[in-house]
């Protein structure tokens, strides 16, 4: 578990650094994303949907506020089109993360953990708990992308990864985009309540899973 945690820390640090750089340079901030979506709305709903997909896909390379963009997607496109656009963007980000990591991730893992047997044990650990980790990954910013990369690096089957990724992403995108569709500048409370509620439910799920895991180990 220690070696898997080391790999998670390296990946999370890499994604977090892109978020810091983006904010320091003013690229892909919440305000910038909102401005782009507002400008796109004046031209075409299709352009708004394409921009949402692009922003959420880019989350794999430059960390963006996924929940905020998903809520904005519902706000600008309405429901269900905002949800569909968000699902498409998350889907592409997950598939790309898995594919790139399957191809090149073992090089990084071999550099971090030199011992082959320890790498095998770390991969077996993720195979055991990875499905649940992906399911609940949206409780923590950056962790969805980390979990997609972990799935590729550790050789999780694509069908298993895709099932967990869709079970994690689809309800999340639909709920958040619906909240955005019924919110407005005068009444932002649905979006605020949804943000709080989703975070609480996902963190609660993590807590239950950890307690269950600790009980099983004991």
UniProtKB/TrEMBL annotation:
TM segment ranges: 7-30, 50-72, 79-100, 129-154, 161-179, 191-209
Residue ranges constituting the VTT domain according to the UniProt record: 64-181
InterPro entries per UniProt: DedA_domain, VTT_dom
Entry keyword set: Cell membrane, Membrane, Transmembrane, Transmembrane helix
Coiled-coil segments on the chain, per record: none
Principal location: membrane
Keyword GTP-binding annotated: no
Domain of life from the UniProt record: Bacteria
Any Gene Ontology CC annotation: plasma membrane
Keyword Membrane among record annotations: yes
Compartments (UniProt record): Cell membrane
Membrane topology, as annotated: Multi-pass membrane protein
Record's protein name: Membrane protein DedA, SNARE-associated domain
Species of origin: Gracilimonas mengyeensis
């Amino acid at each position: 578990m220690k070696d898997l945690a080391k790999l998670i820390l390296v990946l999370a640090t890499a994604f977090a650094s892109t978020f810091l750089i983006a904010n320091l340079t003013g690229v892909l901030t919440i305000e910038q994303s909102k401005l782009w979506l507002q400008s796109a709305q004046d031209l075409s709903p299709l352009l708004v949907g394409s921009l949402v997909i692009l922003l959420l896909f880019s989350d794999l390379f430059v960390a963006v506020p996924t929940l905020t963009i998903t809520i904005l997607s519902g706000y600008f496109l309405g429901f269900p089109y905002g949800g569909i656009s968000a699902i498409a963007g998350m889907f592409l980000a997950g598939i790309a993360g898995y594919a790139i990591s399957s191809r090149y991730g073992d090089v990084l893992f071999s550099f971090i953990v030199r011992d082959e047997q320890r790498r095998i044990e770390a991969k077996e650990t993720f195979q055991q708990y990875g499905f649940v980790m992906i399911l609940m990954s949206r409780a923590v910013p950056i962790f969805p992308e980390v979990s997609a990369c972990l799935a590729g690096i550790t050789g999780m089957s694509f069908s298993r990864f895709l099932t967990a990724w869709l079970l994690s992403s689809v309800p999340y995108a639909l709920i958040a985009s619906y909240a955005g569709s019924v919110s407005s500048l005068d009444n932002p409370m649905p979006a605020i309540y949804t943000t709080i509620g989703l975070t609480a439910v996902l963190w609660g799920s993590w807590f239950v899973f950890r307690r269950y895991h600790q009980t099983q180990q004991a």
